[in-house]
């Protein structure tokens, strides 16, 4: 699959690396050269320095042949513009735009864009985590893998009471 | 008319003033609170200090009863989104977007933005009118100047009027790709007859450009 | 004492026309009382004004019976109070996008030599005093002097 990713931030960079690993043809576009430092040295895709909202840059990046375009910059509006450019000017079959404003994301779904909305995803996951625990969030919220060594808790605190109770239990078992 | 102006920079500010002077009802949405306050101090309580791309603030601005929305910020993407939200959520009859990058104009029109205004293109057009017609207009160059893309406008004195393209002995490395006639672009076919007023888009090599010029335009 | 005439102390403050914008809340009471003190028994006049704010989603001359009823109530209450204290009073309602601008314009029109406004003590989320939009606007933009009476509070802004 030929994928164009606009924006090599944390999300764009990681997505690009994973898709590249899976064997897809990935082209990443970013206006800032340094953003490409996020990519692993094993990255086999193409990097293009330029604005993903610019028709010429997209054409140069192979938009005419792309199967999927993901607009992942930090600007909701820029992503909306780039995704529509991909869809209408280049006829790219699937376009995904990161649009963090839930209302705008909803509106753009009616215009043929797939949208990813960080606000809704994170808030929903956090509510589930709060109500049903991290395990219920399908990996969105991860439980701790280990507990650190405890220091001495301040006297009168909940942690101190818990520690005292634990000691009593241990003492009780021993006797 | 009830007009919502999005963007309180120079364009938005003067546009609002003019509209008010002409007797229209205007609301401006300007993101920067300081700028919003300054404008409100002068023009009255008609500035909403928030992001005009958000449906919520468009609602607050009474977008539902607007006759026109004019998105005139300095960023094309913001103007695009503001107009699209206004049309999608509020069915505003006319959406006008300022387009700074002329390359975006076609896309915006396709996305149902009713009218686009590109200051760049307007000024470019003015400049072009200053250029004598008896010359090739340079549009772009490739390969470090080796290849030129030019436009030749055929006026009444052009030596090739009435000829078909096939008949022209174009110099080495030159070809006519597109003819713009009456504001429409038509493909340049071997049997296309050339008329006065035609604008020929041609590709030529740098060394043969003068020859192409005298062929199409004359001495 | 001759002929039972009461000696009048010369007034330190005299006003001929005081504009008293009424919000229709308990903040109005202090403003009304101060106005009564200043004008009782004088030839000065009080003008009570309530501004109905109309959002942009409606035409400026939109009819809003609920808002008008609310205005009438606030104005009647104020009028009754001032009349009881021997103050000459007139009332008015205005519709505007922003109350502050309407108040400032009204003061100019009436040539008010003082504006008296009450202000409830309000806090923002996270602490911080919220003076609202209207009082600061009138303070900044009015040519007449403005006296704002801030109500008492049980809790200050910086207490979370």
User: Which CATH top level class of the domain at 2-98 in chain A fits?
Assistant: Alpha Beta
Helix-strand pattern of chain A: EHEEHEHEHEHH
Distance between termini of chain A?
67 Å
- Structural class designation of chain B: alpha/beta
Query: What would the CATH topology of the largest domain in chain B be?
Result: Rossmann fold
The helix tally of chain A amounts to: 6
Please state the second-level CATH architecture of the domain at 2-98 in chain A: 3-Layer(aba) Sandwich
Q: Which regions of chain A have little confidence, pLDDT < 50, spanning 5+ residues?
A: none
Instruction: Count all strands of chain B and give the number.
Output: 11
Full CATH superfamily name of the domain at 2-98 in chain A? NAD(P)-binding Rossmann-like Domain
Strand order across the largest sheet of chain A: 3-2-1-4-5-6
What does this structure look like?
The complex is a heterotrimer of chains A (about 180), B (about 220) and C (about 160). By secondary structure, chain A is an alpha/beta fold. Chain A has helices spanning about 10-20, 55-60, 75-90, 100-110, 120-130, 160-175, and strands spanning about 1-5, 25-30, 45-50, 70, 95-100, 115. Chain A has a domain at about 1-100: 3-Layer(aba) Sandwich (Rossmann fold), CATH 3.40.50. In chain A, helix 1 (about 10-20) links the parallel strand 1 and strand 2. Chain B is of the alpha/beta class. Chain B folds into two domains: about 1-125, NAD(P)-binding Rossmann-like Domain (Rossmann fold, 3-Layer(aba) Sandwich), CATH 3.40.50; about 130-215, Regulator of K+ conductance, C-terminal domain (Alpha-Beta Plaits). In chain B, the strands form two sheets. In chain B, strands 3-2-1-4-5-6 form a six-stranded parallel sheet, sandwiched between helices. In chain B, strands 7-8-11-9-10 form a five-stranded antiparallel sheet. The termini of chain B are far apart. Chain C is an alpha/beta fold and about 160 residues long. Chain C has helices spanning about 25-40, 65-85, 100-110, 135-140; strands spanning about 15-20, 45-55, 90-95, 115-120, 145-150. Chain C is globular, with a radius of gyration of 18 Å. Chain C starts with 16 loop residues before the first strand and ends in a 10-residue tail after the last strand. The chains are: A alpha/beta (about 180), B alpha/beta (about 220), C alpha/beta (about 160). At the B-C interface, loops of B face loops of C.
């Amino acid at each position: 699959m030929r994928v164009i990713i606009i924006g090599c931030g944390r999300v764009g960079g990681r997505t690009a690396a994973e898709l590249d690993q899976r064997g897809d043809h990935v082209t990443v576009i970013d206006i800032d050269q340094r953003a490409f430092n996020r990519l692993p040295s094993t990255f086999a895709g193409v990097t293009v320095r330029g604005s993903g909202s610019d028709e010429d840059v997209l054409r140069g990046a192979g938009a005419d042949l792309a199967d999927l375009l993901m607009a992942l910059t930090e600007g909701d509006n820029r992503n909306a513009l780039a995704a529509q450019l991909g869809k209408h000017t280049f006829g790219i079959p699937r376009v995904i735009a990161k649009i963090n404003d839930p209302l705008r994301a909803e509106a753009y779904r009616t215009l043929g864009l797939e949208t990813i909305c960080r606000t809704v995803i994170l808030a929903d996951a956090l509510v589930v985590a709060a109500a049903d625990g991290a395990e219920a969030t399908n990996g969105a919220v991860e439980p701790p893998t280990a507990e650190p060594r405890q220091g001495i808790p301040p006297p009168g605190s909940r942690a101190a009471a818990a520690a005292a109770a634990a000691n009593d239990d241990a003492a009780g078992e021993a006797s | 008319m009830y007009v919502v102006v999005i963007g309180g920079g120079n364009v938005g500010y003067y546009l609002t003033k003019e509209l008010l002077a002409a007797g229209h009802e205007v609301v401006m949405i300007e993101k920067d609170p300081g700028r919003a306050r300054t404008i409100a101090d002068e023009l009255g309580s008609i500035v909403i200090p928030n992001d005009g791309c958000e449906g919520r603030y468009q609602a607050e601005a009474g977008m539902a009863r607007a006759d026109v929305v004019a998105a005139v910020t300095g960023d094309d993407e913001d103007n695009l989104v503001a107009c699209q939200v206004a049309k999608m959520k509020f069915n505003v009859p006319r959406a006008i977007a300022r387009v700074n990058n002329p390359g975006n104009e076609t896309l915006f029109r396709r996305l149902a933005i009713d009218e686009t205004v590109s200051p760049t293109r307007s000024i470019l057009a003015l400049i072009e009118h200053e250029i004598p017609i008896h010359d090739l207009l340079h549009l772009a160059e490739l390969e470090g100047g080796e290849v030129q893309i030019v436009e030749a406008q055929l006026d009444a004195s052009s030596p090739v009027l009435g000829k078909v393209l096939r008949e022209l002995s174009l110099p080495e490395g030159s070809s006519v790709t597109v003819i713009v006639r009456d504001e429409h672009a038509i493909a340049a076919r071997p049997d296309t007859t050339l008329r006065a007023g035609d604008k020929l888009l041609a590709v030529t090599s740098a060394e043969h450009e003068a020859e192409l010029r005298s062929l199409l335009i004359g001495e | 004492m001759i002929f039972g005439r009461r000696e009048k102390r010369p007034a330190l403050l005299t006003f001929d026309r005081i504009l008293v914008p009424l919000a229709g809340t308990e903040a109005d009471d202090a403003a009304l009382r101060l106005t009564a003190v200043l004008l009782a028994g004088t030839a000065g006049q009080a003008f009570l004004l309530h501004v109905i704010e109309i959002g942009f989603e409606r035409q400026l001359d939109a009819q809003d019976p609920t808002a008008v009823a609310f205005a009438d109530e606030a104005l009647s209450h104020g009028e009754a109070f001032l009349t009881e204290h021997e103050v000459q009073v007139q009332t008015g309602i205005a519709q505007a996008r922003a109350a502050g601008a309407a108040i400032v314009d009204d003061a100019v029109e009436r040539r008010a030599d003082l504006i008296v406004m009450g202000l409830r003590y309000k806090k923002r989320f996270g602490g911080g005093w919220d003076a609202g939009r209207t009082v600061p606007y009138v303070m900044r933009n009015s040519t007449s002097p403005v006296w704002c009476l801030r109500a008492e509070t049980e809790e200050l802004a910086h207490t979370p």
